[in-house]
Every structure is written in C-alpha cells, then in structure tokens.
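User: Here's a chain of 356 residues. Predict its fold as tokens.
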Amino acid sequence: MMTAIQDRPKVAVVQDPLSHARLPRWTPFAVAAGSIAAAIGIGLGAGWHSRLQWGMIAALLFVLVTFAVTTKVEGKRQAKDRVATSIVWVCFVLAVVPLLSLAWTTISKGLEVLDPYFLSHSMNGVLDAEAGGGIYHALLGTIEQVLIATAIAAPIGLLTAVYLVEYGKGKLAKAVTFFVDVMTGVPSIVAGLFILATWNLMLGFGPSGFAGAMALAILMMPVVVRSTEEMLKLVPNELREASLALGVPKWRTILKVVLPTAIGGITTGVMLAVARITGETAPVLLLVFGTKLINPNPFEGAQSSLPLYVYEQYAVGTDAAVARAWAAALVLIAFVMILNLVARGIARWKAPKTGR
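Assistant: Prediction complete.
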C-alpha cells in the first residue's frame, strides 16, 4: 500500500506567468490628487499664479508618476499601457476644462439680464449705451434664417450623398466629391460675398434674411453631404441585397431600408451643420445688415440675428451692452442645445426598432 502511494507521480505546481501584482483601482485617483497638489505647490513656490501653468505641471506629473509607479509594481509593459491611458485622460481633461469654463462664464454672466422681458422685447427706442431692451428681433431673425437655410441645404445635401453612395460612378461622382471637399473649406465671408455679388448686385435684390440664409446654406451643404455619406456607407450591404432579392426597386430600397437605418446619423449630421451656421456673423453682416426693429418677413428688409446682436453689443463696450451680449450668447447656446435634443428625439423615434 505504501509502495503504491509512493509510486504515484508528483504533480508539480507551476505558477501562471501572466499573474503579477496589480495596483489598486483607486491608484489613478490618488496619483491625480497628488499631482494636482504637487503642481500647486510648485507653482506657488516658483511664483507662478496662472492656473494654466499649474494644470500643465499637474498633467506632466500625473503621466510621469503613473509610469514610475506602474513600472515598479506591474512591470514596464503594463506601465506603457497605463501611460497611454493616462495621456488619453489628460487630453480629455484639457479639452473639457475650457468648455466647462466657457459654459460657466456664459451662464453666470448671461443670467444677470436674462428674463422674460429680455426675450420678448427688441432694441427699438433703446440706446446701445443704456440699460434695457431685448433680443426678440434677433432671436426671430436667427430662427427664420436657420430654418430657411436648413430647408435649402438639407434636401440637396441628402440627395447628393445618396447619389454618391448608391449611384455615383465615374467622372461625375469624382467631380462632385471634389467640389464638396472644396466647399468644406470655403470661409463664411466668401459665401457671403458670392450671394452679395449674385443676389444683391446682379439681380438687384436688397438686404434680407433670405439672402443671409442662402449664404448659410452654402456653408451647411458640404457638412450635410459628408456626414450623410459616411452614415449611408455604414449601412450593411446585406440589407440592400435582401431587399433587392425580394424584387423591391432600388429607389424604394433606399427610401424604405437604407435611409431609415441611417436616420440617426443623418439627423446628427444635419444638427452639426445647423450648429455650424447658427453662430456665423459675417454673411449676416453683409447680407442682412442688422436692425433694432422686429422684421418678421425674411424676404424683404433688414433683419438681425443672435450672432450679429452679440457682435454689435460687445462692440459698444458699455456695461449694459456687454451684459446683453452675454445674455444673447447664452440664448444662442440654449437654442443650439434645444435643436440637438429635438433632433435626437426625432432620430430615436424614426430609428428602426430592434428586438421584439
């Protein structure tokens, strides 16, 4: 019996070469807190009072300390991975902090004069240097101009993208793609000058919100085309082939299968284009001229817009005018946010349902 037990082969215990010591999950937060504290100490000791300098020192210390600690505990290979992750987080923070700072400054200063009176009255009869007045005329002009520009650019951009993805072949498709790329980099002032030369000078029309909307549509079209084109390319070809195999015409396949599948991305692209044109000032300044009066007719007479209103009030320079400029900027940001929320709701409503 003892001999049988002794003759059994011994099982060697082999350690897993992939198992190694791991840092706790709270390590990045501790390193970040220590880096911030050290950066503040270094900045105060060196006499640097700029928070930007403190932030750059903290970011550098965070990456270096993360690499050193991870190398000591987990090894050099894992340290490289953590350093890459740390750099991504640092870049994210560097991008978000200015955005949050801008939002906080706009909200804190814009709320000083933002009230129902400010939203429901114009600047008619109010001097720029004195308090009072509102943005109703500018808000109305912005809404009308953006809606007209979207009504012009969105269908043209959508149909162009459908042609390039579903039908485009040969020299014509290459030429369309080339001109779309060129239009993407056209400055807003050039679009305004083009409409000014054709619509106003050659055809003899005066300043109007419609003229400004046409210039904004030129800026909006390439964004719509590019974003819609990329969304249509993401639609699986299997869906198209299944629809065509059932005998559905190609135009109906595009209308009932391809576009509903990509409607979320298309709507997001259109909203990006709307946000791109909502803050433009140069075309409005050239073609719409701006006015203190309420003009609900976008096809005749000068109009105003929120970006132009902000520019005009900030140029005055008085405390009351600057306060109105901040409030108008806050309304402009809120306007773009509301449009994006509405677009997301429409995209979710129209998106194809998944599951049972």
